[in-house]
Write a structure and sequence with these properties.
Blueprint (H helix, E strand, L loop, with lengths): L7 E6 L14 H16 L3 E6 L7 H6 L4 H25 L4 E5 L8 E2 L2 H9 L3 E5 L9 H11 L4 E6 L20 E3 H6 L7 H9 L4 E5 L5 H6 L6 E4 L3
Parallel strand pairs: 1-2, 1-6, 2-5, 3-4, 3-5, 6-8, 7-9
Antiparallel strand pairs: 8-9
Helix pairs in contact: 1-3, 5-7
This protein binds uridine-5'-diphosphate.
């Protein structure tokens, strides 16, 4: 199944991707490599929105499991995503890519608030827009934030860069016979609870007909390959 034609995409990276081989935090070398992937995609003429998770620093669920108030912990998780966004902004600007960070939690000294029209203008001017702090509310994740921004920015696809090269019918780490889907419908992902993104994020993409492209961001050049239709990925979409 080829990639649908795209002009504007939203790339979602989980915070864990930024860790590299570490067990916590971010590895500036890895962030630099990811920035080069983004630059290559941008240089191919695409408009790029970015959403980065915060799981490498803090997840609300983990805080809640340890006895914290869930909402309080979730706000900490959202702040973690802002740190990752700033790290990625730094790495992109070091290689000459102009960026703006827009946060769903206002912090004027650090970045812009989310303003859709202003984000539009940034994209038109060739800037990468990094959306931070998810949807700005607890009990959500950055997957939902990514789906929301992809919808409001009218992105042609939501690219989910992870550590696996697509969606499998069972866990490929446990089952050597697990099969990767070339394409799968939103409804199957939801009904079979396939681990791609949160159900709310998948449903939002379904309702707005935004294809979700799941691919591995761990190999060099893979984002560009996927965008050129030469990569390995799974595409989540509606019935053909
Ligand atoms: N979070 C939130 N609302 C949002 C987005 C994120 O409360 O709209 C919090 C939540 O606690 C989450 C954490 O921020 O666990 C980090 O985001 P996420 O788990 O999505 O990061 P990822 O798994 O992509 O690294």
């Amino acid at each position: 199944m080829p990639m649908p034609p795209v002009k504007r995409v939203l790339l979602k990276l989980s915070g864990e991707v930024l860790m590299g081989d570490q067990s916590f935090g971010l590895d500036p070398k890895v962030v630099g490599e990811l920035a080069r992937e983004v630059k290559a995609a941008k240089d191919s003429g695409l408009q790029i929105c970015l959403v980065i998770g915060g799981g490498n620093i803090f997840r609300g669920m983990a805080g809640a499991a340890a006895g914290m108030d869930r909402a309080q912990a979730d706000y900490m998780g959202m702040l973690a995503t802002v740190m990752n966004a700033l790290a990625m902004q730094n790495a992109l600007e070091q290689i000459g890519v102009h960026t703006r960070v827009q946060s769903a939690i206002q912090m004027d000294q650090v970045c812009e608030p989310v303003i859709r029209r202003r984000a539009e203008r940034h994209l038109e001017k060739g800037r990468v827009v990094i959306f931070a702090a998810g949807v700005g509310s607890p009990y959500f994740t950055t997957d939902s934030g990514a789906a929301l921004r992809a919808a409001e920015m009218k992105c042609d696809a939501l690219l989910k860069g992870t550590s696996v090269d697509g969606i499998y019918d069972s866990d490929p780490k446990k089952n050597p016979k697990a099969k990767r889907f070339e394409t799968v419908t939103y409804d199957r992902v939801l009904a079979d609870n396939l681990k791609v993104m949160d159900a709310s994020a998948v449903a939002l993409c379904r309702d707005n007909a935004i294809p979700i492209v799941v691919f591995s961001i761990r190999e060099n050049g893979n984002l560009a390959r996927v965008l050129a239709g030469k990569g390995v990925q799974t595409i989540v979409q509606g019935e053909a």
